[in-house]
């Protein structure tokens, strides 16, 4: 099946580059392009694409407004933000408005392609820099991210964040593979981790693992 895409960016040359990148991937087809939030809304209603990829910096109403309007029209709309704008606050606003993914233009091209696949599978996608920014923002709020976890869940999280595979965790803790998978899913849900990278940064912020550039949370 072909995934139809609406591209929203106010720079025609940039849109052409995205189109070429995306249409080199099997099963992806750009069927419409817009350069404003209003045009994005109109074209979404006219073409009903499977996915919208949009920038947040648009003339007139912002990409955040485009996300809100499209999602008001169609609660099932899948929208992936692809923008130069970085930072946890803006990413959080985009997700709050209904975005299913947030990738910065500083990311390698493969991250955009991978994010398309992730969003189309019904999961939330983020580039590594955004996952890190959101995790650090949570740490900065001063709460202990691990308060809601059981001792066993903390053990599993520490091993996973250190790079251990599910099989290795199962062997180390004398658990079944299914139990490890179930616990990892529950840990992600409890911590609000959107990706594996986000989970690692939460663990690092809580002091379970050491990663460059991540400090300890306040006492």
TrEMBL record:
Residues 142-207 form the HTH luxR-type domain. This is Two component transcriptional regulator, LuxR family. CDD domains: LuxR_C_like, REC_NarL-like. SMART domains: HTH_LUXR (SM00421), REC (SM00448). The modification 4-aspartylphosphate is found at residue 55. One of its GO terms (molecular function) is DNA binding. Residues 4-120 form the Response regulatory domain. One of its GO terms (biological process) is regulation of DNA-templated transcription. Pfam families: GerE, Response_reg. Gene3D superfamilies: 3.40.50.2300, Winged helix-like DNA-binding domain superfamily/Winged helix DNA-binding domain. Keywords: DNA-binding, Phosphoprotein. It comes from the Bacteria.
């Amino acid at each position: 099946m072909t995934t139809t895409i609406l591209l929203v960016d106010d720079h025609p040359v940039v849109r052409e580059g995205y189109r070429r990148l995306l249409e080199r991937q099997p099963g992806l087809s750009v069927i419409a392009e817009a350069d404003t939030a209003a045009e994005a809304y109109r074209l979404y209603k006219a073409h009903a694409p499977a996915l919208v990829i949009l920038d947040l910096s648009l003339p007139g109403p912002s990409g955040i407004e485009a996300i809100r309007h499209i999602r008001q029209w169609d609660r099932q709309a899948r929208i992936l933000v692809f923008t130069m704008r970085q930072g946890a606050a803006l990413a959080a606003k985009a997700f709050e408005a209904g975005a299913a993914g947030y990738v910065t233009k500083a990311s390698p091209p493969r991250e955009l392609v991978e994010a398309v696949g992730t969003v189309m599978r019904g999961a939330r996608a983020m580039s590594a820099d955004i996952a890190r920014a959101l995790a650090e923002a949570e740490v900065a709020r001063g709460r202990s991210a691990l308060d809601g976890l059981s001792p066993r869940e903390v053990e599993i999280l520490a091993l996973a964040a250190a790079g251990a595979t599910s099989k290795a965790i199962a062997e180390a803790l004398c658990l079944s593979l299914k139990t490890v998978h179930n616990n990892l899913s529950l840990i992600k849900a409890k911590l609000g981790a959107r990706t594996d990278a986000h989970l690692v940064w939460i663990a690092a912020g809580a002091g379970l693992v050491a990663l460059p550039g991540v400090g300890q949370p306040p006492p």
